[in-house]
Design goal:
CATH class of the largest domain: Alpha Beta
Radius of gyration: 23 Å
Number of strands: 20
CATH architecture of the largest domain: Roll
Strand content: 15-25%
Distance between the termini: 55 Å
Helix content: 25-40%
Mean pLDDT: 94
Oligomer: single chain
Number of domains: 3
Largest sheet: 5 strands, mixed
Length: about 475
């Protein structure tokens, strides 16, 4: 027998029964059961932000507030957390300061997207984050307004002021619903497990090797909302505390490295990766909207094995290593060897990605990450490059060049690399190397780009990396490059 899902809604304890559908989305629960219809469905895939709600989680020293997409958030993931919707704001006939600022700046037009914007701004305000224009644009990149009313919305963000709520009272209430044991649900033949430790997770997956492993749900959620798949057994690592750590470790080749646990969200990994190298920071900044980064995990992105995932090419170039675990046994695997074919990874039944170890690019290397997409913010790559080249005395000593969007998996450009190693780092060498990309890749044409565009763009990204290393600087600014 399981136990109820226990969480806070507007500070009051709510329970969902132990036979709750494990893939019931928070959006559907809010609209059809709780009758909170302010939260809207726009895309049902975490892109538009109309369904944005705020989660409060107990954190050292208080409460961490996160704007998330309710359309791809499963109800069991509320366990032990606090939920706020647009109806949570503005009580007893008075508007909340965020809502009042939206009114005063005329920031709502048709109004459909407005609740989502309000909740993103509310999360920003409760977090005490900066409200300068750049910070607001980053926080609101995951919210779309079809009426193109962004200017007044940004003005509302600057006018909303600081939060007046008491985080201490909420922290005390969260302590009351903090789970001490694994959440288990049964809904007919379907089951859901949320272990509390990595050892418990390993044991559950050994007992249920066929289970779907759920991290942030930013991809698995779409299996339900878009593909209408029925997931029989789901094992969540959302509550595994010891998988949420980021540790400094020694790289196998020497030098600095970080170990990112499987439960680390992109929003938490962002500053640490940016400290490893600014190129990582720039890439993560464009990986989905903030709502996606507040749920999605680095390791989940890797385990998913998407050929157009942004992070794998960058981490392959950096020589990242995966830590895989089954029961009490662990093994390490170079990230590029994890991807076997489209939709197939080197992971046995019951085995899970426990962590990824990312080495800091050594000083003096040519290291670059580049993403081409139709939109600068929150768009899937047409082509993504990770490049790391060692140059000593004017000659290339080694090269790691990986692409996403060019093959059925994230893949290294072996022929291109071979044409560089041992040769002088010159424009002529680079031209000879990029000519060999046709041996490495046979890209496809799809809605994001044609095959010819992808191959030519890949060549140009390597050429640009050389020009920058030679001191020529960027030919185009980052936003222009994003549009290809």
């Amino acid at each position: 027998m399981g136990r109820p899902i226990r969480f806070l809604l507007d500070g009051a304890v709510r329970e969902l029964p132990a036979d709750t559908d494990p893939t019931l989305t928070v959006l559907n629960w809010l609209r059809y059961d709780a009758r909170r219809t302010g939260t809207k469905e726009g895309c049902a895939e975490g892109d538009c932000g109309a369904c944005t709600v705020v989660l409060g989680e107990a954190a050292e020293g208080g409460v961490r507030f996160r704007a998330v997409n309710a359309c791809i958030l499963f109800a069991p993931m509320l366990d032990g957390r606090a939920l706020f919707t647009v109806e949570s704001l503005g009580r007893e006939g008075a508007l909340h300061p965020v809502q009042q600022a939206m009114v005063e700046t005329h920031a709502s037009q048709c109004g459909f997207c407005t609740p989502g914007f309000v909740m993103s701004l509310y999360a920003l305000q409760r977090s005490g984050a900066p409200t300068d224009t750049a910070s607001l644009k980053d926080a609101l990149a995951g919210n779309l307004c079809r009426c193109t009313g962004y200017g007044p919305i940004l003005a509302a963000g600057q006018a909303m002021g600081e939060a007046a709520e008491d985080d201490g009272a909420l922290a005390a209430a969260l302590a009351q619903v903090r789970p001490s044991e694994m959440l288990t649900l049964e809904h007919g033949s379907r089951r859901f497990f949320a272990p509390r430790s990595a050892d418990e997770l390993a044991a559950v997956l050994e007992a249920h090797p066929e289970a779907t492993v759920l991290a942030g749900g930013t991809d698995v959620g779409l299996w339900v909302t878009k593909q209408h798949r029925v997931l029989e057994t789901v094992v969540s690592l959302n509550d595994v505390a010891d998988l949420k750590a980021i540790d400094e470790v020694e790289a196998r080749e020497g030098g600095e490295a970080i170990r990112i646990g499987a439960g680390v969200r992109y929003a938490d990994a962002h500053p640490v990766l940016a400290a490893l190298h600014p190129e990582f920071g720039a890439l993560v900044r464009r990986l989905g909207g903030l709502q996606v980064r507040n749920l999605g995990t680095v390791c989940g992105n890797l385990a998913n094995g998407s050929p157009i995932g942004d992070m794998p090419p960058a981490l392959i170039a950096a020589g990242a290593v995966l830590v895989l675990r089954k029961g009490s046994m662990r093994r390490e695997l170079p990230l590029e060897d994890f991807f076997l074919a489209y939709g197939k990874q080197d992971r046995a039944p019951g085995e899970f990605v426990e962590a990824v170890i990312v080495r800091k690019p050594p000083a003096g290397r040519v290291f670059t990450i580049a993403k081409l997409s139709k939109r600068f913010d929150q768009d899937i790559s047409a082509v993504c490059l990770g490049l790391s080249v060692g140059v000593e005395a004017g000659r290339v000593t080694d090269a790691r060049i990986a692409f996403g969007g060019m093959a059925a998996t994230p893949k290294r450009a072996a022929a291109c690399e071979a044409a560089l190693v041992g040769q002088p780092w010159t424009a002529e060498t680079v031209e000879a190397a990029v000519a060999r990309l046709a041996e490495d890749f046979t890209p496809i044409t799809d809605m994001r780009a044609s095959a010819d565009y992808r191959l030519e763009a890949a060549k140009n990204l390597i050429r640009r990396a050389f020009r920058e290393s030679a001191g020529a600087g960027r030919v185009l600014d980052a936003e222009a490059v994003a549009y290809g």
